[in-house]
Amino acid sequence: MTDEIIDDSHEETFVQTLSPQTAHDWIARWDVQQEGYLPDREDRFTALVDAVEAAAGRPDPLVIDLGCGPGSLAVRLLARLPQATVAAVDADPLLLSLGRSGYGHVRGLSFTRLDLRVPGWSDALTLDRPADVAVSTTALHWLAEDHLRAVYAEVASVLRPGGLLLNGDHLDTGDTTPVLSGLEKLVHDRETARRFAEGRPEDWAQWWQATAADPALAGLMAERERMLAAAELDHTESPLLSTHVAALRDAGFAEVGTLWQRGNNRLLAAVTPPRP
């Protein structure tokens, strides 16, 4: 699980700087609890960065990170491709402040608070050229189908010809192959259960409960609560692979397919048409 991509405006309504040590401590706990649900999280990160490196066609690619959270993917990508530029986007004020405070020194990385459900979000990034790659991990399934379609269409509009979108997420095939979908989910659930049995790492709810109890994060938590209260949520998600594939094709992507998979955890890739 990761955070919902929600906000009520394109404006930065609250900014709080945390000490780098506080940020790194909380990001470390975030990574551990995420790995409880994704035992192969680092493998998926590695496969994603491999694809970026191979497909970008240059040592300094421009990458958009959608639903970036505290920047876990972005810093791994920049560790491999230090000349890259990563425009990291999320709506959660607490996760963004963790990223800014913990990784603000990383060259080429910027964080912007944006609501992906609001058309035109990419304008706020003020990109100086078409992006080479757009990436996301465990985030876009939170969007309802109509918002997901709009996001994919906007991503396609800011990618260069032959640009790449990479979405690592749990995407089910239950609507087309119910038996295999059940087996995919079983593989993931059993691996997750084994991971939690090995010392019971902090889970999603416990991580958020702990952040709420930290006085250093009180202002950010209050802002997050205001954001959640103001957001118009229908709690509709897009967990089906077929929904994402159809939305990508309708957005104009020329090729769509799975690059890496383990159970129902997969890395979905899509390529924009090449230049005529």
From TrEMBL:
Residue ranges occupied by any Methyltransferase domain in the UniProt entry = 63-163
| Classification via CDD domains | AdoMet_MTases (cd02440)
**Keyword set includes Amino-acid biosynthesis:** no
Keyword annotations for this protein? Methyltransferase, Transferase
Q: Which Pfam families match?
A: Methyltransf_25
Q: Does the keyword Lipid metabolism apply?
A: no
Q: Which InterPro entries match?
A: Methyltransf_25, SAM-dependent_MTases_sf
Q: Which GO terms describe its biological process?
A: methylation
GO molecular function annotation:
methyltransferase activity
- Record's protein name: Methyltransferase type 11
